[in-house]
Amino acid sequence: MTKILYEPKKDLKNWLRIKEEYPESFTITRYYPFDKDIILKKENFRKILFSISKTKTKHFNIQAKVIKKAWQNREDKIINKITDYLNTPFTKIDFKANLTTAYLMPYDYKDKWFMIPTHKAIEDQIVCLIHELFHLYQLKKNPSMSKIEREKEVEYFINNYL
Question: Could you give the CA distance from residue 94 to residue 91 in angstroms, rounded to a whole number?
Fold first, then answer.
């Protein structure tokens, strides 16, 4: 079953991951929902985590429901386009997506999990979802495809078939 939700813990882990992996270009943006006065480091994880307001968490959870509903309204049509394009049988892949306030969105195709941004318009969020879902179908069909080939193909699909 498809799940789309906001989990502050996963969002904060994403911020910490970005800071650790890309220290030279890391920046906290205006979308950062945690207390900016608490230094972003692992040792402060719990303190930072509990600094997010219930209002923001509620807002992001509502946003997740809106995205899920928008996705469900076009899921079969999009999956049909993807599977037709890839010449594979129509099957639904259950996935889990978490919203993130950060500017980079990680994924784990083995676990069929990825992140989508909170700070984009709904249509752009759906395109992000389709992009990542397309990769799941690609990897199911051809697990040895290179990352460069996958990215070229998904961009071609999105630009020409959506």
Answer: 10
Domain boundaries, the chain: 3-161
Q: Contact 137/25 with Cβ under 8 angstroms?
A: no
How far, in Å, are 99, 121, 145, 146 from residue 78 at the CA level? 21, 19, 22, 23
Token match 């995205």: residue? 67
- Per residue in 132-149, pLDDT tens? 999 999 999 999 999 899
Residues 6+ apart with CB under 8 A from 71: 2, 4, 126, 129
Instruction: Say how far apart CA 111 and CA 94 lie, in whole Å.
Output: 10
Query: Please, which residues have CB within 8 angstroms of residue 146's CB and are 6 or more apart in sequence?
Result: none
